[in-house]
């Protein structure tokens, strides 16, 4: 597979067998069908560094035209908590200098922010029958302890590319998480306080 863009920004071409996605993230990948004639699984599982949380793997089947009916070959997946694989993927992605919307990295820093990203549990609300997560809650993602919510107008990325930032990115965006805690303590993974 060949990664060519992340979140609508072109990257240097990166060839990989594994793709890591974060909640809300998009990745543009060119998939080359160059295997022997047959049926193959395309499989996915969440990357989650915490222990003891149930999740389902997801799979799709790729069938080459003319392939005989047979049991697809299941790929070997990295462990759900394979941090070295996730690290390798993210640290090998680089911008595409000169590509559309490319901006050189500033040499002078004029804003300092401390940002945390995390996975957590959130109440289901409304008695949803589809909410079967641990402790009767659903998985969610957060940035600086604020859960993701779909934008009511433009997303930050859309506002940036359309040069329409009014009311989307405001000066009250926090420079630090509003609640200080031990951000790297694994025992906090299921702390609901």
What is this structure, in a nutshell?
The chain is mainly beta and about 190 residues long.
Q: Which percent range describes the beta-strand content?
A: 15-25%
State the end-to-end distance. 41 Å
> What class, by secondary structure content?
mainly beta
Order of helical and strand elements: EEEEEHEEEH
Helix content: under 10%
- How does the major sheet shape up? 3 strands, antiparallel
Counted up, domains total 2
- Low-confidence blocks of residues: none
Mean pLDDT, rounded to whole units?
78
Number of strands: 8
Task: Tell the overall outline.
Answer: globular
| Total number of helices | 2
Please list the strands of the largest sheet in the order they lie side by side.
2-1-3
Rg is 20 Å
InterPro entries: Cu-oxidase_2nd, Cu-oxidase_fam, Cupredoxin
GO molecular function, one term: oxidoreductase activity
Protein name: Plastocyanin-like domain-containing protein
Pfam families: Cu-oxidase (PF00394)
Which labels suit this protein?
three-stranded antiparallel β-sheet, 2 helices, globular, 2 domains, 193 residues, 22% strand, mainly beta
How does this structure look, described?
By secondary structure, the protein is mainly β. It has two domains: 2-91, no CATH class; 117-188, no CATH class. It is built from two helices and eight strands; from the N terminus they run βββββαβββα. The protein has helices at residues 83-91, 156-161; strands at residues 2-6, 9-15, 27-30, 39-44, 58-63, 117-122, 138-143, 146-147. A hairpin with a 2-residue loop joins strand 7 and strand 8. The mean pLDDT is 78.
């Amino acid at each position: 597979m060949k990664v060519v863009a992340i979140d609508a920004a072109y990257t240097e071409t990166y060839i990989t067998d594994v793709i890591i996605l974060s909640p809300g993230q998009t990745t543009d990948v060119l998939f080359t069908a160059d295997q022997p004639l047959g049926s193959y699984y395309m499989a996915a599982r969440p990357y989650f560094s915490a222990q003891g949380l149930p999740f389902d793997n997801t799979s799709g089947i790729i069938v080459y035209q003319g392939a005989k009916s047979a049991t697809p070959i299941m790929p070997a997946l990295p462990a759900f908590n394979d941090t070295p694989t996730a690290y390798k993927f993210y640290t090998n992605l680089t911008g595409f200098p000169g590509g559309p919307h490319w901006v050189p990295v500033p040499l002078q820093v004029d804003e300092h922010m401390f940002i945390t990203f995390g996975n957590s549990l959130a109440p289901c609300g409304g008695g949803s029958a589809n909410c079967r997560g641990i402790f009767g809650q659903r998985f969610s993602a957060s940035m600086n302890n604020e859960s993701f919510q779909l934008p009511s107008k433009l997303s930050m990325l859309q506002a940036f590319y359309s040069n329409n930032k009014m009311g989307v990115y405001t000066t009250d965006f926090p420079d630090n998480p509003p609640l200080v805690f031990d951000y790297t303590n694994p025992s906090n993974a299921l702390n609901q306080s």
